[in-house]
Amino acid sequence: MARYTKAACRLCRREGVKLFLKGDRCYTEKCAVVRKGYPPGGYGQGRHKVTEYGLQLREKQKAAVITVF
Ligand SMILES: [Zn+2]
């Protein structure tokens, strides 16, 4: 399976919760969730309607991200 090796705390931001992928880093204010409390990317700050499916997908992705790390 593919392994994501880039900015781990970007994934924290995506899920809006600390995933502790980098261990201690997420315990500090260096975790991007603290710095920027919105999802990464140019559309991160926009308001989006989150669908039921979207919620399910985020949960699924969250689990996938954690297991891959
Ligand atoms: Zn983090």
Please provide a brief summary of the model.
The chain contains 3 helices and no strands.
Word description of this protein:
- With 69 residues, this protein is mostly helical.
- It is built from 3 helices and no strands.
- The longest helix is centred in the last third of the chain and has 17 residues.
- Zinc ion binds next to helix 1 and helix 2.
Which features would summarize this protein structure in a list?
single chain, 69 residues, mainly alpha, Ribosomal Protein S4 Delta 41, Chain A, domain 1, 3 helices, globular, binds zinc ion
Order of helices and strands: HHH
CATH homologous superfamily annotation: Ribosomal protein S4/S9, N-terminal domain
Tell me the distance between the termini.
11 Å
CATH fold-level label: Ribosomal Protein S4 Delta 41, Chain A, domain 1
| Count of runs of 4 or more consecutive helical residues | 3
As a whole number of angstroms, the C-alpha radius of gyration is 12 Å
Pairing-aware structural class of the strands and helices? mainly alpha
Second rung of CATH, namely the architecture: Orthogonal Bundle
Bound ions, cofactors and other small molecules, one mention each: zinc ion
Low-confidence stretches: none
Let me know the average pLDDT. 84
